[in-house]
Amino acid sequence: MAPGLCEDGAVSTPEHPHADGSVRLATTDDAATIASIQAEALRLNYSALLPGAAVDEFDLAAATNGWTTAISSPPSPRHRVFVAVDLAGVVGFAASAPAADADLNPEQDAELPAFHVAPGHTRLGHGSRLMAAVVDHAQDDGGNRLVMWVFAADDPMRMFLRDNGWEPDGSTRDLDVGELLHQVRLHTGIKDAPDLIA
User: Fold this and answer.
1) What domains can you pick out in the chain, each with its CATH number?
2) Residue of 181, 180, 179 lying closest to 154 (CA atoms)
3) 122-150, pLDDT tens digit by residue?
4) Is the per-residue pLDDT at 59 higher than 60?
5) 3-state helix, strand, coil in the chain (%, to 5)
6) Residues 6+ apart with CB under 8 A from 90
7) Residue 110: partners with Cβ closer than 8 Å, 6 or more residues away
8) In 22-86, which ranges are continuous DSSP H helix?
9) pLDDT grade, residue 50 (50/70/90)?
10) What mean pLDDT do residues 25-53 have?
11) 3-class secondary structure, 98
12) Which long-range contacts (CB under 8 A, 24 or more apart) does 44-51 make?
């Protein structure tokens, strides 16, 4: 991922994508691809972290319907789904929303409940472009901070966030996915967002 935002940080329109990759707001036509990327990432990136049943029982049709609803009928204007695209099509996605944790301020804090780049398309700048788009929109909303819950054992995601200025904020939880898995919450200030790197 190239350092700096530059033109890669811009959110292009669906009609004018950058040749080397861009980010735009998702449409309902993207829902099935988003669900497929989620399923592929779950199988290839998280099978060692999650119980087998959590991976095997992923319902692609239900996920597609869920993303369709999230895109077409978001709970608020600050609930957004972004997609990273290249010449092959959609290759990653991110979802952002007002922060829901009781100790956060939903008017100033936003969270990323989902962030995935398709296996085989990582380390090509798509993650940094997705993050730049999330930051840009959160700043436009008047936000001060982004947060994200990450599995404590998810080293690649924690390293990606750490290298882009995120750090643990001290909050932890155990998520029940058939067994209890430990998560940590990371955060970053976005008033003066740093350049994004690989």
Assistant:
1) 6-11+19-144 (3.40.630.30)
2) 181
3) 888 899 999 999 999 999 999 999 999 99
4) yes
5) 30, 30, 40
6) 30, 33, 34, 37, 83, 84
7) 78, 96, 97, 98, 99, 134, 138, 141, 143, 145, 146, 147
8) 31-45, 52-56, 60-72
9) confident
10) 92
11) strand
12) 44/119, 45/119, 45/156, 46/151, 46/154, 49/151, 49/153, 49/154, 49/181, 50/177, 50/178, 50/181, 51/177, 51/178, 51/179
Place of tokens 């001060």: 144
What amino acid is encoded at 149 in this protein? W
Question: Within 10 A of 34 (CB to CB), how many other CB atoms are there?
Answer: 26
Distances in Å between the Cα of 91 and the Cα atoms of 12, 74, 83, 127, 154 are 15, 22, 7, 10, 20
Tell me which H or E stretch contains 28. none
Residue found by looking up tokens 């924690």 in the block = 158
Secondary structure (3-state) at 182: strand
Token representation of residue 42: 């779950």
The confidence score (pLDDT) of residue 115 equals 97
